[in-house]
Amino acid sequence: MYLVMLAHTLIAYNMSYLQNPQFLEQASQHPLSMLLHNGSVIVQTFILLSSFLLAYNQLIDSEKDPKKLSLRELPRIFFNRIARITPLNVFMVGLTATWWRHMSDGPLWIPFIEKECAQCRDKWWAQFLYINNFIEPDKKCLIQTW
Asked: By the 8 A CB rule, do 11 and 140 touch?
């Protein structure tokens, strides 16, 4: 998950004004940088490994109790996943809506960050309910969570 967030934050470097653009072009030739720029492969690998881990844990649980391997377990699995993600999501939306715009300064800070902070103040409730892609999809709060 850390690598996914890192790859999304590096998008800002490609969108901003650079004092030394040659450095960014040379850095993109590095093998680790190539992994971050081709992030869709990393995301697909993460989803695949996460799915195998979920299936493995389900099989271990079914050995202890064979009745646990059923579709009735699906709501519990979804609830556990949402329970792990929600506290961090609430914290990040709250931080972005209130304090993030005050954490730095610079020529690109206002154009990039102020708009996103305003959208988080308007759409915080949709972000908390995980329906932010359906309610005003053009207004993006925390673009990396789309």
From this structure: no
Alpha-carbon distance 18 to 13, whole Å?
8
Count how many Cα atoms sit within 13 Å of the Cα of residue 129 in the half-sphere of its side chain: 9
Q: How far apart are CA 96 and CA 5, in angstroms?
A: 15
Reading the block at residue 30, the tokens are 């590095």
The DSSP secondary structure of 86-141, one letter per residue, reads HHHHHHHHHHHHHTGGGS--STTHIIIIIHHHHHHHHHHHHHHTT-TTTSSTTS-S
What are the structure tokens assigned to 24, written together?
A: 């960014």
CA 2 to chain centre: 9
- CA distances to 19, 60, 121, 138 from 145, rounded to whole Å, are 29, 31, 16, 13
Tens-digit pLDDT profile for residues 101-144 = 888 887 778 887 888 889 989 989 998 888 988 988 888 888 77
Q: In sequence order, what are the residues at sequence separation of 6 or more whose Cβ sits closer than 8 angstroms to the Cβ of residue 127?
A: 89, 93, 120, 141, 142, 145
What is the pTM for the complete model shown?
0.63
